[in-house]
UniProtKB/TrEMBL annotation:
InterPro entries xref list: DUF11_rpt, DUF7507, Ig-like_fold
Keyword Transmembrane helix: yes
One example of a Gene Ontology biological process annotation: carbohydrate metabolic process
Source superkingdom: Bacteria
Region (Disordered): 1-23
DUF7507 domain ranges (all copies): 70-152, 174-269, 294-385, 410-501
Name of this chain's protein: DUF7507 domain-containing protein
This protein's record includes keyword Transmembrane helix: yes
Transmembrane segments: 555-575
Gene source species: Lentzea aerocolonigenes (Lechevalieria aerocolonigenes)
Protein backbone atom coordinates (compact mmCIF):
# COMPACT_ATOMS: atom_id res chain seq x y z
CA UNK A 1 0.00 0.00 0.00
CA UNK A 2 1.37 3.36 -0.89
CA UNK A 3 0.03 6.90 -0.98
CA UNK A 4 -1.66 8.21 -4.05
CA UNK A 5 0.44 8.66 -7.17
CA UNK A 6 3.37 6.93 -5.61
CA UNK A 7 6.03 6.67 -8.28
CA UNK A 8 4.14 8.98 -10.61
CA UNK A 9 2.63 6.11 -12.70
CA UNK A 10 -1.13 6.42 -12.41
CA UNK A 11 -1.80 4.17 -15.35
CA UNK A 12 -0.43 0.93 -13.92
CA UNK A 13 -1.09 1.19 -10.20
CA UNK A 14 -4.28 0.98 -8.25
CA UNK A 15 -5.14 4.73 -8.29
CA UNK A 16 -7.94 4.00 -10.60
CA UNK A 17 -8.87 6.68 -12.98
CA UNK A 18 -6.25 9.40 -13.09
CA UNK A 19 -8.83 12.13 -13.40
CA UNK A 20 -10.42 11.24 -10.09
CA UNK A 21 -9.20 13.09 -7.05
CA UNK A 22 -7.87 11.19 -4.16
CA UNK A 23 -10.06 11.17 -1.10
CA UNK A 24 -9.21 13.75 1.49
CA UNK A 25 -8.02 12.85 4.92
CA UNK A 26 -10.80 10.91 6.67
CA UNK A 27 -12.77 10.15 3.46
CA UNK A 28 -13.34 6.77 1.77
CA UNK A 29 -13.48 5.78 -1.90
CA UNK A 30 -13.76 2.62 -4.02
CA UNK A 31 -11.53 1.98 -6.98
CA UNK A 32 -11.84 -0.85 -9.56
CA UNK A 33 -8.63 -2.23 -10.94
CA UNK A 34 -8.41 -2.59 -14.67
CA UNK A 35 -6.75 -5.35 -16.71
CA UNK A 36 -3.61 -3.30 -17.22
CA UNK A 37 -3.24 -2.36 -13.58
CA UNK A 38 -0.93 -5.19 -12.78
CA UNK A 39 1.39 -3.22 -10.45
CA UNK A 40 1.48 -5.14 -7.25
CA UNK A 41 1.88 -1.86 -5.30
CA UNK A 42 -1.47 -0.54 -4.31
CA UNK A 43 -1.82 3.18 -4.14
CA UNK A 44 -4.89 3.42 -2.02
CA UNK A 45 -4.97 7.24 -2.44
CA UNK A 46 -4.81 7.95 1.29
CA UNK A 47 -3.17 11.36 2.09
CA UNK A 48 -1.22 11.51 5.34
CA UNK A 49 -1.87 14.45 7.75
CA UNK A 50 0.75 17.20 7.27
CA UNK A 51 -0.32 20.20 9.39
CA UNK A 52 1.75 23.41 8.95
CA UNK A 53 1.44 27.12 9.71
CA UNK A 54 3.23 30.22 8.44
CA UNK A 55 3.41 33.73 9.89
CA UNK A 56 4.75 36.76 8.10
CA UNK A 57 5.28 39.87 10.17
CA UNK A 58 5.27 43.29 8.49
CA UNK A 59 6.22 46.76 9.73
CA UNK A 60 4.37 49.93 8.80
CA UNK A 61 6.00 53.22 9.79
CA UNK A 62 8.01 56.05 8.37
CA UNK A 63 8.10 55.57 4.63
CA UNK A 64 7.32 51.85 4.94
CA UNK A 65 3.96 50.18 4.41
CA UNK A 66 3.87 46.48 5.33
CA UNK A 67 7.60 46.07 5.07
CA UNK A 68 8.62 42.44 5.57
CA UNK A 69 11.68 43.62 7.47
CA UNK A 70 13.22 40.25 8.28
CA UNK A 71 16.72 41.73 8.40
CA UNK A 72 18.11 44.96 9.90
CA UNK A 73 17.88 47.86 9.60
CA UNK A 74 14.36 47.74 8.37
CA UNK A 75 12.40 50.88 7.67
CA UNK A 76 13.51 54.15 9.29
CA UNK A 77 10.82 55.39 11.64
CA UNK A 78 11.10 58.69 13.53
CA UNK A 79 11.58 58.07 17.20
CA UNK A 80 8.27 58.56 18.97
CA UNK A 81 6.22 57.88 15.88
CA UNK A 82 3.60 55.09 15.74
CA UNK A 83 4.71 51.70 14.46
CA UNK A 84 2.14 49.16 13.23
CA UNK A 85 2.96 45.49 12.96
CA UNK A 86 0.83 43.21 10.79
CA UNK A 87 0.95 39.44 11.38
CA UNK A 88 -0.33 37.42 8.37
CA UNK A 89 -1.02 33.82 9.46
CA UNK A 90 -1.62 31.12 6.84
CA UNK A 91 -2.53 27.44 7.11
CA UNK A 92 0.13 25.94 4.87
CA UNK A 93 -0.69 22.31 5.85
CA UNK A 94 -3.35 19.86 4.75
CA UNK A 95 -5.37 19.81 7.89
CA UNK A 96 -7.65 22.31 9.49
CA UNK A 97 -6.04 24.40 12.20
CA UNK A 98 -8.03 25.54 15.19
CA UNK A 99 -7.27 27.73 18.21
CA UNK A 100 -4.76 29.85 16.36
CA UNK A 101 -2.80 32.23 18.63
CA UNK A 102 -0.43 35.02 17.65
CA UNK A 103 2.00 36.53 20.18
CA UNK A 104 5.01 38.88 20.18
CA UNK A 105 8.22 38.41 22.10
CA UNK A 106 8.09 42.05 23.24
CA UNK A 107 5.85 41.97 26.31
CA UNK A 108 4.92 45.59 25.65
CA UNK A 109 3.34 44.62 22.34
CA UNK A 110 -0.22 43.32 22.43
CA UNK A 111 -1.39 41.48 19.30
CA UNK A 112 -5.00 41.75 18.27
CA UNK A 113 -6.53 39.01 16.08
CA UNK A 114 -10.04 38.27 14.67
CA UNK A 115 -12.46 36.28 16.82
CA UNK A 116 -12.50 33.34 14.35
CA UNK A 117 -9.19 31.64 14.81
CA UNK A 118 -9.85 28.54 12.62
CA UNK A 119 -8.15 28.18 9.27
CA UNK A 120 -8.80 25.57 6.62
CA UNK A 121 -5.82 24.53 4.55
CA UNK A 122 -4.69 27.53 2.46
CA UNK A 123 -6.70 30.07 4.41
CA UNK A 124 -5.14 33.17 6.10
CA UNK A 125 -5.94 35.68 8.78
CA UNK A 126 -4.34 38.97 9.85
CA UNK A 127 -3.51 40.25 13.31
CA UNK A 128 -2.15 43.67 14.20
CA UNK A 129 -0.27 45.45 16.97
CA UNK A 130 0.95 49.00 17.48
CA UNK A 131 3.73 50.65 19.43
CA UNK A 132 5.82 53.80 19.73
CA UNK A 133 9.15 53.78 17.94
CA UNK A 134 12.18 53.89 20.14
CA UNK A 135 15.57 55.20 19.10
CA UNK A 136 17.94 52.89 17.30
CA UNK A 137 17.77 49.39 15.94
CA UNK A 138 14.70 47.46 17.04
CA UNK A 139 13.56 43.86 16.41
CA UNK A 140 10.66 41.88 17.71
CA UNK A 141 9.48 38.39 16.79
CA UNK A 142 5.93 37.29 16.07
CA UNK A 143 4.86 33.71 16.80
CA UNK A 144 1.79 31.89 15.38
CA UNK A 145 0.51 28.59 16.81
CA UNK A 146 -2.41 26.34 15.67
CA UNK A 147 -3.84 22.94 16.55
CA UNK A 148 -4.44 20.40 13.68
CA UNK A 149 -8.04 19.18 13.51
CA UNK A 150 -10.41 17.15 11.25
CA UNK A 151 -13.24 18.60 9.26
CA UNK A 152 -15.34 18.71 12.37
CA UNK A 153 -12.62 20.88 13.95
CA UNK A 154 -11.83 18.08 16.36
CA UNK A 155 -8.15 17.98 17.21
CA UNK A 156 -6.37 15.06 15.58
CA UNK A 157 -5.23 12.51 18.08
CA UNK A 158 -1.51 12.15 18.34
CA UNK A 159 -0.80 15.25 16.29
CA UNK A 160 0.75 18.19 18.18
CA UNK A 161 0.30 21.94 17.55
CA UNK A 162 2.21 23.56 14.73
CA UNK A 163 4.05 26.89 15.15
CA UNK A 164 6.04 29.46 13.17
CA UNK A 165 7.95 32.66 13.93
CA UNK A 166 8.96 35.69 11.94
CA UNK A 167 11.09 38.68 13.04
CA UNK A 168 10.56 42.28 12.05
CA UNK A 169 12.96 45.20 12.27
CA UNK A 170 12.80 48.96 12.21
CA UNK A 171 15.30 51.67 12.88
CA UNK A 172 14.18 54.38 15.28
CA UNK A 173 15.54 57.54 13.70
CA UNK A 174 16.78 60.16 16.18
CA UNK A 175 18.55 62.65 13.96
CA UNK A 176 20.47 65.40 15.71
CA UNK A 177 23.23 67.84 14.94
CA UNK A 178 25.54 69.97 17.01
CA UNK A 179 27.59 73.07 16.31
CA UNK A 180 30.31 74.47 18.51
CA UNK A 181 31.47 77.94 17.56
CA UNK A 182 34.90 79.14 18.67
CA UNK A 183 36.23 82.70 18.63
CA UNK A 184 40.01 82.74 18.41
CA UNK A 185 39.93 79.14 19.67
CA UNK A 186 37.76 79.95 22.69
CA UNK A 187 34.31 78.41 23.09
CA UNK A 188 32.97 81.74 24.32
CA UNK A 189 29.30 80.98 24.92
CA UNK A 190 29.04 83.85 27.38
CA UNK A 191 30.29 87.41 27.36
CA UNK A 192 32.83 88.88 27.33
CA UNK A 193 34.77 86.14 25.55
CA UNK A 194 38.34 86.72 24.40
CA UNK A 195 39.65 90.28 24.29
CA UNK A 196 40.66 91.30 20.77
CA UNK A 197 42.16 94.66 19.85
CA UNK A 198 39.84 96.83 17.80
CA UNK A 199 40.44 96.19 14.08
CA UNK A 200 42.43 93.08 14.97
CA UNK A 201 41.74 89.79 13.21
CA UNK A 202 39.04 87.51 14.56
CA UNK A 203 38.84 83.86 13.52
CA UNK A 204 35.61 81.98 14.03
CA UNK A 205 35.69 78.19 13.85
CA UNK A 206 32.47 76.21 13.42
CA UNK A 207 32.75 72.52 14.40
CA UNK A 208 29.74 70.50 13.23
CA UNK A 209 29.02 67.01 14.57
CA UNK A 210 26.28 64.53 13.66
CA UNK A 211 25.10 63.65 17.15
CA UNK A 212 22.11 61.64 15.94
CA UNK A 213 21.81 58.08 14.59
CA UNK A 214 21.01 58.80 10.94
CA UNK A 215 23.02 60.12 8.08
CA UNK A 216 22.58 63.83 7.30
CA UNK A 217 22.88 65.69 4.05
CA UNK A 218 22.20 69.20 2.76
CA UNK A 219 24.22 70.60 5.68
CA UNK A 220 24.35 74.39 5.76
CA UNK A 221 26.08 76.77 8.20
CA UNK A 222 25.01 80.37 8.66
CA UNK A 223 25.94 83.16 11.07
CA UNK A 224 23.46 85.79 12.21
CA UNK A 225 26.06 88.52 11.74
CA UNK A 226 28.51 87.10 9.23
CA UNK A 227 26.00 85.47 6.85
CA UNK A 228 26.51 82.18 5.01
CA UNK A 229 29.66 80.33 5.97
CA UNK A 230 31.52 78.80 3.08
CA UNK A 231 32.85 75.40 3.97
CA UNK A 232 34.84 73.56 1.29
CA UNK A 233 35.57 70.70 3.69
CA UNK A 234 31.94 69.87 4.40
CA UNK A 235 31.07 66.28 3.31
CA UNK A 236 28.02 65.65 1.15
CA UNK A 237 26.75 63.16 3.73
CA UNK A 238 27.65 63.26 7.39
CA UNK A 239 27.52 59.90 9.14
CA UNK A 240 26.50 59.56 12.80
CA UNK A 241 29.36 60.64 15.05
CA UNK A 242 31.32 62.28 12.24
CA UNK A 243 32.47 65.91 12.38
CA UNK A 244 33.93 68.63 10.19
CA UNK A 245 34.93 72.27 10.73
CA UNK A 246 34.77 75.55 8.84
CA UNK A 247 36.52 78.89 9.32
CA UNK A 248 35.52 82.52 8.95
CA UNK A 249 37.67 85.59 9.58
CA UNK A 250 36.79 89.22 10.22
CA UNK A 251 37.93 92.46 11.84
CA UNK A 252 37.12 93.13 15.48
CA UNK A 253 34.77 95.99 16.21
CA UNK A 254 34.96 98.04 19.39
CA UNK A 255 33.03 96.82 22.42
CA UNK A 256 31.09 93.70 23.29
CA UNK A 257 30.29 91.54 20.26
CA UNK A 258 28.08 88.47 19.99
CA UNK A 259 27.11 86.36 17.02
CA UNK A 260 25.29 83.06 16.64
CA UNK A 261 26.30 80.10 14.51
CA UNK A 262 23.53 77.92 13.08
CA UNK A 263 23.70 74.59 11.28
CA UNK A 264 20.91 72.64 9.53
CA UNK A 265 20.82 69.17 8.00
CA UNK A 266 18.36 66.74 6.47
CA UNK A 267 18.07 63.19 7.93
CA UNK A 268 18.20 60.38 5.37
CA UNK A 269 17.82 56.60 5.56
CA UNK A 270 20.21 53.97 4.34
CA UNK A 271 19.16 54.45 0.73
CA UNK A 272 19.69 58.20 0.87
CA UNK A 273 15.99 59.01 0.95
CA UNK A 274 14.48 61.59 3.25
CA UNK A 275 12.90 60.05 6.34
CA UNK A 276 9.18 60.93 6.32
CA UNK A 277 8.05 62.67 9.47
CA UNK A 278 11.58 63.64 10.38
CA UNK A 279 12.16 67.19 9.29
CA UNK A 280 15.51 69.00 9.03
CA UNK A 281 17.51 69.21 12.22
CA UNK A 282 19.29 72.36 13.37
CA UNK A 283 21.48 73.62 16.17
CA UNK A 284 22.80 76.97 17.38
CA UNK A 285 25.79 78.12 19.35
CA UNK A 286 26.57 81.71 20.38
CA UNK A 287 30.03 83.17 20.62
CA UNK A 288 31.43 86.40 22.01
CA UNK A 289 34.47 88.60 21.97
CA UNK A 290 35.29 92.00 23.42
CA UNK A 291 36.74 94.54 21.00
CA UNK A 292 39.35 96.24 23.16
CA UNK A 293 40.19 99.89 22.57
CA UNK A 294 42.39 100.93 25.48
CA UNK A 295 43.16 104.65 25.75
CA UNK A 296 44.20 107.06 28.47
CA UNK A 297 44.16 110.83 28.94
CA UNK A 298 46.09 113.23 31.11
CA UNK A 299 45.28 116.88 31.77
CA UNK A 300 48.06 118.75 33.50
CA UNK A 301 47.31 122.03 35.26
CA UNK A 302 49.48 124.69 36.88
CA UNK A 303 47.87 126.26 39.91
CA UNK A 304 44.53 125.14 38.48
CA UNK A 305 45.21 126.52 35.01
CA UNK A 306 45.21 124.09 32.06
CA UNK A 307 48.14 125.92 30.52
CA UNK A 308 48.83 123.89 27.39
CA UNK A 309 50.47 126.86 25.70
CA UNK A 310 52.85 129.54 26.90
CA UNK A 311 52.96 131.69 28.85
CA UNK A 312 50.46 130.04 31.22
CA UNK A 313 49.74 131.58 34.58
CA UNK A 314 52.06 134.30 35.88
CA UNK A 315 53.64 133.09 39.11
CA UNK A 316 55.95 135.15 41.33
CA UNK A 317 59.48 133.87 41.30
CA UNK A 318 60.29 131.59 44.27
CA UNK A 319 56.62 131.12 45.15
CA UNK A 320 55.07 127.66 45.39
CA UNK A 321 53.77 126.04 42.20
CA UNK A 322 51.24 123.20 42.33
CA UNK A 323 50.88 120.89 39.34
CA UNK A 324 47.86 118.59 39.15
CA UNK A 325 47.66 115.65 36.76
CA UNK A 326 44.09 114.56 36.05
CA UNK A 327 44.32 111.02 34.64
CA UNK A 328 41.29 109.36 33.05
CA UNK A 329 40.85 105.87 31.59
CA UNK A 330 39.12 106.89 28.36
CA UNK A 331 39.18 103.39 26.88
CA UNK A 332 36.98 100.35 27.40
CA UNK A 333 39.42 98.08 29.23
CA UNK A 334 40.80 98.06 32.72
CA UNK A 335 44.28 99.59 33.11
CA UNK A 336 46.89 98.49 35.64
CA UNK A 337 50.34 99.78 36.58
CA UNK A 338 49.24 103.33 35.85
CA UNK A 339 52.17 105.70 36.46
CA UNK A 340 52.77 109.41 35.92
CA UNK A 341 56.18 110.96 35.25
CA UNK A 342 56.97 114.64 34.78
CA UNK A 343 59.74 116.03 32.64
CA UNK A 344 61.82 117.52 34.13
CA UNK A 345 60.26 117.21 37.59
CA UNK A 346 60.47 113.39 37.83
CA UNK A 347 58.11 110.80 39.32
CA UNK A 348 54.67 111.93 40.44
CA UNK A 349 52.79 110.33 43.34
CA UNK A 350 49.26 109.18 42.50
CA UNK A 351 46.48 107.79 44.72
CA UNK A 352 45.96 104.62 42.65
CA UNK A 353 47.62 102.41 40.06
CA UNK A 354 44.50 100.76 38.61
CA UNK A 355 41.72 102.47 36.70
CA UNK A 356 38.47 100.98 35.45
CA UNK A 357 37.01 102.28 32.18
CA UNK A 358 35.81 105.84 32.70
CA UNK A 359 37.51 106.16 36.09
CA UNK A 360 39.70 109.17 36.93
CA UNK A 361 42.23 110.19 39.55
CA UNK A 362 44.23 113.32 40.34
CA UNK A 363 47.95 113.25 41.07
CA UNK A 364 49.79 116.24 42.59
CA UNK A 365 53.30 117.65 42.57
CA UNK A 366 54.62 120.92 44.08
CA UNK A 367 57.69 122.98 43.30
CA UNK A 368 59.23 126.46 43.54
CA UNK A 369 58.70 128.86 40.67
CA UNK A 370 61.69 129.84 38.62
CA UNK A 371 62.01 133.16 36.88
CA UNK A 372 60.99 133.28 33.27
CA UNK A 373 59.05 131.01 30.95
CA UNK A 374 58.81 127.45 32.23
CA UNK A 375 57.44 124.31 30.59
CA UNK A 376 57.15 120.78 31.85
CA UNK A 377 55.34 117.75 30.45
CA UNK A 378 53.29 115.17 32.33
CA UNK A 379 53.22 111.67 30.84
CA UNK A 380 51.03 108.77 31.92
CA UNK A 381 51.28 105.08 30.98
CA UNK A 382 49.08 102.08 31.74
CA UNK A 383 48.80 98.40 30.82
CA UNK A 384 45.49 97.11 29.37
CA UNK A 385 44.14 93.90 30.92
CA UNK A 386 41.01 91.80 30.49
CA UNK A 387 38.34 91.21 33.10
CA UNK A 388 40.58 88.60 34.71
CA UNK A 389 43.49 91.07 34.95
CA UNK A 390 45.38 89.16 32.27
CA UNK A 391 47.29 91.05 29.58
CA UNK A 392 45.36 91.51 26.35
CA UNK A 393 47.21 89.73 23.52
CA UNK A 394 48.98 92.18 21.27
CA UNK A 395 47.92 95.23 23.28
CA UNK A 396 50.80 97.67 23.95
CA UNK A 397 50.94 100.04 26.88
CA UNK A 398 48.75 103.06 26.45
CA UNK A 399 50.27 106.46 26.98
CA UNK A 400 49.38 110.13 26.86
CA UNK A 401 51.13 113.38 27.69
CA UNK A 402 50.18 116.97 28.30
CA UNK A 403 52.41 120.04 28.67
CA UNK A 404 51.94 122.85 31.15
CA UNK A 405 53.46 126.31 31.32
CA UNK A 406 53.93 129.12 33.76
CA UNK A 407 55.80 132.38 33.68
CA UNK A 408 57.92 133.05 36.74
CA UNK A 409 57.58 136.78 37.26
CA UNK A 410 60.48 138.93 38.53
CA UNK A 411 59.34 142.48 37.79
CA UNK A 412 61.77 145.35 38.35
CA UNK A 413 62.27 149.01 37.51
CA UNK A 414 65.10 151.53 37.79
CA UNK A 415 65.32 155.30 37.64
CA UNK A 416 68.44 157.42 37.17
CA UNK A 417 67.85 161.14 37.79
CA UNK A 418 70.33 163.65 36.44
CA UNK A 419 70.63 167.39 36.86
CA UNK A 420 71.98 169.14 33.82
CA UNK A 421 73.34 165.74 32.73
CA UNK A 422 75.08 165.14 36.05
CA UNK A 423 74.05 162.00 38.02
CA UNK A 424 74.29 164.02 41.17
CA UNK A 425 73.26 161.47 43.75
CA UNK A 426 75.14 163.44 46.46
CA UNK A 427 75.39 167.11 47.29
CA UNK A 428 76.50 169.63 46.28
CA UNK A 429 76.01 168.46 42.67
CA UNK A 430 76.65 170.79 39.79
CA UNK A 431 76.95 174.52 40.52
CA UNK A 432 74.15 176.40 38.94
CA UNK A 433 73.78 180.16 38.88
CA UNK A 434 70.78 181.32 40.69
CA UNK A 435 67.95 182.08 38.28
CA UNK A 436 69.42 180.05 35.44
CA UNK A 437 67.65 177.13 33.74
CA UNK A 438 67.95 173.66 35.33
CA UNK A 439 67.15 170.47 33.34
CA UNK A 440 66.39 167.25 35.14
CA UNK A 441 66.31 163.97 33.19
CA UNK A 442 64.77 160.79 34.53
CA UNK A 443 66.11 157.69 32.79
CA UNK A 444 63.60 154.87 33.48
CA UNK A 445 64.41 151.23 32.66
CA UNK A 446 62.27 148.07 32.97
CA UNK A 447 64.81 145.80 34.65
CA UNK A 448 62.40 142.88 35.21
CA UNK A 449 60.99 140.16 32.98
CA UNK A 450 57.39 141.36 32.72
CA UNK A 451 55.80 144.15 30.82
CA UNK A 452 55.14 147.25 32.92
CA UNK A 453 52.11 149.39 32.39
CA UNK A 454 50.92 152.57 34.06
CA UNK A 455 54.52 153.69 34.39
CA UNK A 456 54.58 157.08 36.10
CA UNK A 457 57.39 159.37 37.34
CA UNK A 458 57.03 161.95 40.07
CA UNK A 459 59.45 164.37 41.63
CA UNK A 460 59.52 165.06 45.33
CA UNK A 461 59.54 168.78 44.67
CA UNK A 462 58.69 169.23 41.03
CA UNK A 463 55.61 166.95 41.10
CA UNK A 464 54.40 164.84 38.18
CA UNK A 465 56.91 164.39 35.39
CA UNK A 466 55.80 164.08 31.81
CA UNK A 467 57.20 161.01 30.04
CA UNK A 468 57.07 159.89 26.41
CA UNK A 469 55.17 156.70 27.28
CA UNK A 470 53.69 154.77 30.18
CA UNK A 471 54.37 151.22 29.01
CA UNK A 472 57.72 149.45 29.01
CA UNK A 473 58.68 146.02 27.76
CA UNK A 474 61.34 144.07 29.65
CA UNK A 475 64.73 145.80 29.10
CA UNK A 476 63.16 148.84 27.52
CA UNK A 477 64.11 152.38 28.68
CA UNK A 478 62.80 155.89 28.27
CA UNK A 479 63.92 159.36 29.36
CA UNK A 480 61.60 161.87 30.95
CA UNK A 481 62.54 165.55 31.26
CA UNK A 482 61.70 168.43 33.58
CA UNK A 483 62.97 172.02 33.39
CA UNK A 484 63.16 174.51 36.23
CA UNK A 485 64.92 177.68 37.48
CA UNK A 486 67.84 177.38 39.81
CA UNK A 487 67.43 178.72 43.26
CA UNK A 488 70.16 179.99 45.51
CA UNK A 489 71.87 177.49 47.69
CA UNK A 490 72.01 173.72 48.01
CA UNK A 491 69.08 171.98 46.25
CA UNK A 492 67.92 168.34 46.45
CA UNK A 493 64.98 166.58 44.87
CA UNK A 494 64.09 162.93 44.36
CA UNK A 495 62.65 161.22 41.32
CA UNK A 496 60.35 158.25 41.93
CA UNK A 497 58.97 155.82 39.34
CA UNK A 498 56.36 153.08 39.62
CA UNK A 499 54.88 150.56 37.20
CA UNK A 500 52.29 147.77 37.21
CA UNK A 501 53.55 144.29 36.25
CA UNK A 502 51.38 143.07 33.38
CA UNK A 503 50.95 140.16 31.06
CA UNK A 504 52.22 140.28 27.53
CA UNK A 505 48.83 141.55 26.38
CA UNK A 506 48.96 144.42 28.85
CA UNK A 507 46.41 143.13 31.35
CA UNK A 508 47.54 143.36 34.96
CA UNK A 509 48.97 140.28 36.59
CA UNK A 510 46.60 139.17 39.33
CA UNK A 511 48.06 139.77 42.76
CA UNK A 512 51.21 141.46 41.49
CA UNK A 513 52.21 144.62 43.36
CA UNK A 514 53.53 147.67 41.59
CA UNK A 515 57.27 148.00 41.37
CA UNK A 516 58.94 151.29 42.38
CA UNK A 517 62.35 152.94 42.37
CA UNK A 518 63.74 156.38 43.24
CA UNK A 519 66.90 158.40 42.80
CA UNK A 520 68.20 161.65 44.38
CA UNK A 521 69.71 164.54 42.52
CA UNK A 522 71.43 167.79 43.71
CA UNK A 523 72.71 171.10 42.54
CA UNK A 524 74.27 174.16 44.27
CA UNK A 525 72.62 177.42 43.37
CA UNK A 526 75.18 180.26 43.34
CA UNK A 527 74.59 184.00 43.42
CA UNK A 528 75.33 185.74 40.14
CA UNK A 529 78.60 187.97 40.08
CA UNK A 530 78.34 191.72 40.85
CA UNK A 531 78.42 194.00 37.79
CA UNK A 532 81.51 196.36 37.35
CA UNK A 533 82.83 199.05 34.99
CA UNK A 534 86.59 199.69 34.84
CA UNK A 535 87.41 203.50 34.80
CA UNK A 536 91.21 203.13 34.39
CA UNK A 537 91.97 206.23 36.48
CA UNK A 538 95.21 206.19 38.42
CA UNK A 539 98.12 208.19 39.16
CA UNK A 540 101.47 207.03 38.07
CA UNK A 541 102.65 204.34 40.43
CA UNK A 542 99.02 203.44 41.69
CA UNK A 543 96.64 200.57 40.86
CA UNK A 544 93.82 201.48 38.72
CA UNK A 545 90.41 201.57 40.38
CA UNK A 546 87.88 199.16 38.94
CA UNK A 547 84.20 198.85 39.53
CA UNK A 548 81.88 201.47 40.73
CA UNK A 549 82.74 203.54 43.62
CA UNK A 550 81.72 202.03 46.90
CA UNK A 551 79.66 204.60 48.55
CA UNK A 552 78.40 201.79 50.87
CA UNK A 553 78.14 202.56 54.44
CA UNK A 554 79.74 200.23 56.89
CA UNK A 555 76.45 198.43 57.64
CA UNK A 556 75.88 197.51 53.99
CA UNK A 557 79.38 196.23 53.62
CA UNK A 558 78.92 194.05 56.65
CA UNK A 559 75.81 192.46 55.06
CA UNK A 560 77.66 191.44 51.95
CA UNK A 561 80.34 189.83 54.01
CA UNK A 562 77.79 187.89 56.04
CA UNK A 563 76.18 186.54 52.85
CA UNK A 564 79.47 185.25 51.63
CA UNK A 565 80.18 183.60 54.95
CA UNK A 566 76.77 181.92 54.85
CA UNK A 567 77.41 180.44 51.43
CA UNK A 568 80.75 179.12 52.59
CA UNK A 569 79.01 177.48 55.55
CA UNK A 570 76.54 175.68 53.32
CA UNK A 571 79.36 174.27 51.24
CA UNK A 572 81.15 173.06 54.37
CA UNK A 573 77.96 171.46 55.68
CA UNK A 574 77.32 169.60 52.38
CA UNK A 575 80.86 168.29 52.37
CA UNK A 576 80.48 166.96 55.89
CA UNK A 577 77.17 165.27 54.99
CA UNK A 578 78.79 163.65 51.96
CA UNK A 579 81.54 162.25 54.16
CA UNK A 580 78.97 160.80 56.53
CA UNK A 581 77.18 159.15 53.66
Amino acid sequence: VSPKDQGGDNALDSDGEPALASPAYGQTAVFTLGQIQVDRTWDLGVTAAKPAIDVEKYVTGGAATRDDADTPKGPFVPTGATVTWTYVVKNTGNTTLVGIQVTDDDPAVTVSCPQDTTLAPGESLECTATGVAISGQYVNVGTATGTPADDAETPLPGVGPVTDTDPAHYYGASPAIKIVKYTNDQDANEAPGPYVLKDGEVTWKYVVTNTGNTDLNNIKITDDKEGDISCPNAPQTLAPGASFECLKTGKAVEGQYANDGKVTGTPIDGSGSTIPGSGPVEAHDPSHYFGAHPTIKIVKKVNGDDADTAPGPYVPEKSEVTWTYEVTNTGNTKLVDVTVVDTPEGAVTCPAATLAPGESMTCTLTGVAKAGQYENVGKVTGKPVDNGDQPIPGAPEVTADNPAHYFGTAPGIKIVKKTNGDDANAAPGPQVTQGSKVTWTYEVTNTGNTRLTSVAVTDSIEGAISCPKNDLQPGESMTCTKNGTAVLGQYENKGTVEGAPSKADGTPIDGAKKVTADDLSHYLGQAPPLPFTPNGTAKPGQLALTGPPLPLPGIALAGVLLALLGAAGLVLSAARRRRRE
